[in-house]
């Protein structure tokens, strides 16, 4: 017994050493196999030319430029002409029209529910996922980002927002209040998420809301830029609004500052080499300003309306300073990121391709490809060297980047090939977009607590008016008759009991208005008993006059509980009694499932 015991005691240190070595190997293996973090920034309405990296001496963007210097620049990267389609294409790897996105508000911005997003796939692969900023692909769950693969969302779901300083926002569906300037606020949230999940692979989608109008930015950036002299102008300078240009560039410099904060946070967390960092924009510039002599701006399918910066940094993996000449598109982001991260995906139903080989190898061979850009009934097609515009004019983008000379009669073979592709794209892909949008607004999904029903998605009847022709951040006013109402076509996903909150304003003289909310056979009555008459805000912070609605601080009022039955029905709010000049100004209804 004693002798056997001695042998065992001699073996114990060896066994412990083996276990320790195995533990180290296992830990090292885990470290090697840890998937890269991904941070994807999408600026809103920043043109290709709004960067000092691209030669614009009107502003300085050293932090964004550094992503290009430390990583790869895609020289010819294209997106959609406006916001929501680009976001849909980035999220799905498919043309936006396939996913039902045909507008930027009132439901047309929603991404079909049968589409799979990059966040869905990364979350299934073990990533922690978050989106901070402007969503613009649907509000009501499961169109909501929390239903599209993002476990964390903070921001707003509309196409634009009416005030950029501590406005009303939402956090995972619940209404909350922002803290400070929006771009700074979203960046703070992103950095907190990075720190919280530093030991796990994370995907952070940062769709900033700037430099989209209204043109607001802290004085630290706004005042110096507004006092500066511009050195570079649009190719048709008579079109340019120099004050708007300065405001936009000041907002771009603020974005740059926030990009610097993110890169410093990665350094502090020792995550720089473990993180793929991507920077891009969602369309061309939102005004006529310097953009490299390109034709077109936001909303145009010409080069200037759809060319975006794309910088991808992954230190130690992507060679610094490389320039990728091959054309690429927003539809390529999903397959590229999944390929870089080693996450399996089905490429067969995608329109985009992985760009990994251009980033990680010296293989620069690529067959020519065609990329389509579509908006507002206009379709153009881009190949590596040519663009066929929406009027079927052909331009050689090497010798004529400004699209000044139509060469269709001189290059009939190229023209016929690109025109044939355009016809095929319209018949096979654009045709997937139905002629009429029959989608309802889902209400009361059992997997989500809150459903917002905003003025943006409603239809006014009678004399009720929108605060502005752009629906996204609007409210309803001029509610002067009991014959007037607001309605929504909703689909109650599952029956239940809901607490209903009304967001309203009402001056003292109009207190006492009563109303009813009707959904199918359910009726909930309410009365405005307290005045709330805040001023419109935004004008004092705007650097240039806006086109969108000014906003105000709407008061939440719990109306009561309402039993809703499953099925498609009309949701209507109408006034029953108006003792004063008008019933109220209306912003939204919030339904909170309580049973």
General description of the model:
α5 (182-196) packs parallel to α7 (242-268) and α6 (219-227) crosses α7. Helices cover 24% and strands 25% of the residues. It starts with a helix and ends with a strand. β16 and β17 (394-396) form a beta hairpin. With 595 residues, it is α+β, with helices and mostly antiparallel strands. The chain has helices at residues 2-33, 62-70, 83-92, 118-124, 182-196, 219-227, 242-268, 303-306, 333-341, 356-360, 412-428, and strands spanning 37-43, 72-74, 77-78, 128-134, 152-156, 168-171, 174-177, 202-207, 275-281, 307-308, 310-313, 322-324, 328-329, 371-375, 378-382, 386-388, 394-396, 441-443, 450-454, 459-461, 465-466, 476-477, 485-492, 496-505, 514-519, 522-527, 555-564, 567-577, 585-593. It folds into three domains: 33-365, Alkaline Phosphatase, subunit A (3-Layer(aba) Sandwich), CATH 3.40.720; 378-432, no CATH class; 442-593, Sandwich (Jelly Rolls), CATH 2.60.120.260.
What's the structural domain tally? 3
Distance between the termini: 68 Å
| Overall form | globular
Number of helices: 11
CATH architecture level-2 label of the largest domain: 3-Layer(aba) Sandwich
SS-based structural class?
alpha+beta
Strand line-up in the sheet with most strands:
7-6-5-4-8-1-9-11-2-12
In the CATH scheme, the class of the largest domain would be Alpha Beta
**CATH-wise, what's the superfamily of the largest domain?**
Alkaline Phosphatase, subunit A
Rg over CA atoms, rounded to whole Å, is 27 Å
CATH topology name of the largest domain: Alkaline Phosphatase, subunit A
- Assign a percent range to the helix content: 10-25%
Average the pLDDT over all residues and give the rounded result.
94
Percent range for β-strand residues: 15-25%
Question: Poorly predicted ranges (pLDDT <50, ≥5 residues)?
Answer: 1-32
Biggest beta-sheet profile: 10 strands, mixed
Number of strands: 29
